[in-house]
């Protein structure tokens, strides 16, 4: 059985529960029961319903997400002059460690099918300049 029929069955079973009013009724023993009809003893506790609107978000949540997206689109400052050399130094040290491992016969391969040290050298050159 594939995933699509299972997902469809789960969606169909959950569909009747969406948008219904629920009542939270405490009984005399203190146990709480949820039901679709009002409580017989007149006591009920309000249960928040699912938010409506675009994507099921409240207005406050939607405005928060929009603000986050605006901040993400703003250009960020590049690394400072003191951070870039230390990052380049760390990359160079890591590349030298990989080359030493390769000399001992321990090889690591990048996704492109080449030695990882070759890939990292190319990355170092684009970020920090020539090796």
| Radius of gyration from the alpha-carbon trace, in angstroms | 30 Å
| Number of spatially distinct domains | 2
The major pleated sheet works out as:
2 strands, antiparallel
Strand order within the widest beta sheet: 1-2
Our count of helices gives 4
Enumerate the spans where pLDDT stays under 50 for 5 or more consecutive residues. none
Strand proportion, as a percent range, falls in: 5-15%
Overall 3D shape: elongated
Indicate the mean pLDDT.
77
How far apart the termini lie comes to 55 Å
Estimated helix fraction: 40-55%
Q: Which structural class is indicated by helix and strand composition?
A: mainly alpha
**SSE sequence, one letter per element:** HEEHHH
Report the strand count.
2
Structural write-up:
There is one protein chain. With 131 residues, the protein is mainly alpha-helical. The protein folds into 2 domains: 15-73, no CATH class; 83-128, no CATH class. Helices cover 47% and strands 6% of the residues. It is built from 4 helices and 2 strands. It has helices at residues 3-14, 59-73, 83-103, 116-128, and strands spanning 23-26, 32-35. Strands 1-2 form a two-stranded antiparallel ribbon. A hairpin with a 5-residue loop joins strand 1 (23-26) and strand 2. The radius of gyration is 30 Å and the shape is elongated. The chain starts with a helix and ends with a helix.
């Amino acid at each position: 059985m594939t995933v699509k029929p299972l997902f469809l069955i789960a969606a169909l079973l959950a569909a009747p529960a969406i948008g219904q009013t629920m009542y939270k009724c405490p009984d005399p023993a203190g146990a709480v029961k949820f039901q679709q009809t009002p409580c017989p003893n007149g006591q009920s506790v309000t249960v928040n319903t699912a938010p409506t609107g675009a994507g099921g978000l409240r207005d406050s949540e939607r405005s928060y997400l929009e603000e986050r997206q605006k901040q993400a689109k703003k250009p960020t400052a590049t690394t400072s002059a003191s951070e870039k050399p230390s990052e380049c130094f760390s990359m160079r040290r890591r590349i030298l460690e990989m080359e030493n491992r390769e000399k001992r016969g321990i090889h690591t391969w990048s996704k492109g099918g080449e030695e990882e040290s070759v890939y990292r050298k190319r990355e170092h050159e684009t970020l920090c300049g020539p090796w």
